[in-house]
Amino acid sequence: MILTIAGQILVSLGLVFSLIGLYSVLAYKSFYARVVITSKIDTMGFITLIFGMMLLSGSWIVVLKLTIILLFDLLTSPLATTGLAHSAFQSGYKIRKDFGRG
Amino acid sequence: MTFLVITLVVIALLLIGSLVRVFVGPTVWDRVLGLNLVTAKLVMAIVVFAFLVDRTFLLDVAIVYSLLGFIASVLISRFIEGKGQV
């Protein structure tokens, strides 16, 4: 019962994190600010949601598979965003002069 | 049960919102960024759906989709950076 409530709270928190990330990605005007938001907030929401689903699950094999998904996302999400930012910088993406609010 | 359905609906709305960045995005890097977001949301949706229908093998599908999304994002980035050469 405690585990179910804690898992539901964690899943809701992950959804809230993803919602904040989505708002930032849609609202910010600078590309690099959006890359940072994707690399941080969205991964945070993913981790929180997977932890919540771990608490909701009852069997060990599900926890093992969710751990594999979580480790893989932790490994690949920064790599993908770093490669994307590197590609944009090498190709000469314009950096905006005004840094206020992205 | 009801909680998982509500979670799935919210994730679907987030996915549609991430698709806005793919369609609107001024440059090709913005579109790849939106694709990255959509991949993460879709993996979350597959995990929640696996819990909803109580099938364990759908988590393997989530692993494979995460792998494919990573490879697609990195390869598109390398392709643009090399101006046509990977």
Question: How would you sum up this structure, described in words?
Answer:
The complex is a heterodimer of chains A (102) and B (86). Chain A is mainly α and 102 residues long. Chain A has one domain. Helix content of chain A is 81%, strand content 0%. Chain A contains three helices and no strands. Chain A has helices at 2-27, 31-56, 60-90. In chain A, helix 1 (2-27) runs antiparallel to helix 2 (31-56) and helix 2 (31-56) runs antiparallel to helix 3. The longest helix of chain A has 31 residues, at 60-90. The radius of gyration of chain A is 17 Å and the shape is elongated. The N and C termini of chain A lie far apart (43 Å). In chain B, helix 1 (2-24) runs antiparallel to helix 2 (28-53) and helix 2 (28-53) packs antiparallel against helix 3 (58-81). Chain B has helices spanning 2-24, 28-53, 58-81. The mean pLDDT of chain B is 87. Chain B contains three helices and no strands. With 86 residues, chain B is an all-alpha fold. Chain B has one domain. The interface between A and B is large, with 45 and 39 residues.
